[in-house]
């Protein structure tokens, strides 16, 4: 690739950022269909304050910054199962398993299951993945069966490429550029049958689906891009553009209409760019290397132009700050801590070669301002990879 061509690619990259960061239309997040509550597909990222644009060392680089694919050694993920609980979701599950009636207070909770379909392949500049996820939003206002739910299933396909732009050797630096194409399909339905009845065997799954009040489906595709500049393998700066997508939403009268192909109405929605930037520090460990295998310190500012792209849905600037720390001991145990949306997080991971176990406790802010509606959250994850 000639020098002039590389300069043109970089110029077009930043021109694309300017074009997509300040669109003429005004967007509201209330129009979005495909929006997972959690930003990350792993308990590791949840414990470290969310995704980091400058961190590129595993398959989650497909979601954080496609430019990082150039830095990742070969990794194949066969399956992943990460279960996350938000707000009162843990209480709902406990009530269901214990067979109790539940509280009379008004409560709500979110369940998110990432996987078990989660196949990915990444290696030195390219990557591919196919993933599934399921979400349940549940609101209760009394003992069973006083509840309503929204059920959602998603399928995501992603393919990314990254290439390196050579820099003068005396700079001791690298510059990578990456792009990825994303396709997704989603289905969502609302029902007034209490999901806890199904778990307690007092109602069937067919009754849950049969008592639906509305349903929707979505098909969409988008593009993501990124830059990653690294200095001597211990300092990195990243810029990532995520979620720039167009989707078709079809609305149905019930889940049965959705499954049976009944009448529907259609509309198209554009999801706006989430432009984030981050820095990573990975200092040389020297004599500590025999015990401390790795040390990662990362900080990001997420969705930096939301005030200009969709002002009606913009959040307080403090909620955009994310930071994470990871200490890896003896190549096996990882201790993690983070900060995101003005709330702390902690976690632990065990890397057992063919599979890894991860746990995270973290907070999420569901309002537009710090302290407006914070919730406690938990993630438990199992990765099968080699």
Provide key terms for this protein:
386 residues, alpha+beta, Porin, 15% helix, globular
Describe the structure.
With 386 residues, this protein is an alpha+beta fold. It has one domain: Porin (Beta Barrel), CATH 2.40.160. 15% of the residues lie in helices and 51% in strands. It is built from eight helices and 15 strands. Strands 1-2-3-4-5-6-7-9-10-11-12-13-14-15 form a 14-stranded antiparallel beta barrel. A hairpin with a 6-residue loop joins strand 3 (126-140) and strand 4. The longest helix has 19 residues, at 3-21. It is globular.
Q: How do you describe this structure in short?
A:
The protein is 15% helix and 51% strand. It is α+β, with helices and mostly antiparallel strands. The longest helix is centred in the N-terminal third of the chain and has 19 residues, at 3-21.
Q: Any guess at the CATH architecture? A: Beta Barrel
The CATH class assignment is Mainly Beta
Structural class: alpha+beta
Number of helices, where a helix is a run of at least 4 consecutive DSSP H or I residues: 8
Indicate the low-confidence ranges by residue numbers.
12-31
Strand content is over 45%
Compute the average pLDDT. Answer: 85
Oligomer: single chain
Task: Name the helicity range.
Answer: 10-25%
């Amino acid at each position: 690739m000639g020098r002039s061509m590389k300069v043109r690619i970089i110029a077009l990259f930043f021109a694309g950022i300017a074009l997509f960061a300040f669109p003429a239309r005004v967007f509201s997040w209330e129009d979005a269909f495909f929006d997972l509550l959690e930003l990350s597909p792993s308990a590791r990222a949840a414990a470290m304050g969310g995704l980091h644009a400058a961190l590129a060392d595993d398959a989650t680089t497909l979601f954080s910054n496609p430019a990082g694919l150039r830095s990742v050694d070969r990794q194949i993920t066969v399956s992943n199962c990460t279960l996350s609980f938000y707000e009162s979701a843990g209480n709902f599950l406990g009530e269901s398993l214990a067979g109790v009636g539940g509280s009379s207070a008004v409560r709500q909770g979110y369940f998110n299951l990432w996987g078990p379909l989660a196949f990915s392949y990444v290696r030195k500049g390219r990557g591919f993945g196919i993933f599934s996820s399921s979400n349940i939003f549940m609101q209760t206002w009394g003992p069973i069966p006083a509840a309503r739910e929204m059920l959602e299933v998603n399928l995501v396909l992603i393919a990314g490429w990254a290439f390196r732009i050579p820099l003068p050797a005396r700079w001791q630096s690298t510059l990578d550029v990456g792009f990825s194409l994303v396709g997704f399909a989603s289905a969502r339905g609302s029902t007034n049958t209490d999901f806890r009845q199904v778990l307690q065997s007092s109602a069937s799954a067919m009754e849950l689906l049969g008592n639906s009040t509305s349903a929707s489906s979505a098909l969409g595709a988008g593009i993501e891009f990124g830059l990653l500049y690294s200095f001597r393998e211990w300092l990195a700066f990243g810029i990532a553009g995520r979620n720039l997508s167009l989707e078709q939403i079809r609305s149905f009268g019930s889940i049965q209409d959705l499954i049976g192909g009944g009448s529907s109405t259609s509309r198209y929605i554009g999801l706006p760019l989430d432009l984030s930037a981050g820095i990573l520090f990975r200092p040389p460990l020297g004599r500590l290397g025999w015990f401390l295998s790795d040390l990662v310190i990362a900080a990001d500012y997420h969705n930096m132009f939301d005030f200009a792209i969709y002002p009606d849905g913009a959040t307080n600037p403090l909620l955009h700050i994310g930071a994470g720390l990871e200490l890896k001991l003896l190549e096996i145990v990882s201790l993690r801590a983070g900060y995101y949306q003005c709330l702390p997080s902690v976690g632990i991971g065990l890397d057992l070669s063919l599979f890894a176990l991860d746990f995270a406790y973290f907070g999420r802010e569901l309002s537009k301002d710090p302290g407006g509606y914070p919730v406690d959250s938990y993630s438990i994850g199992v990765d099968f990879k080699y």
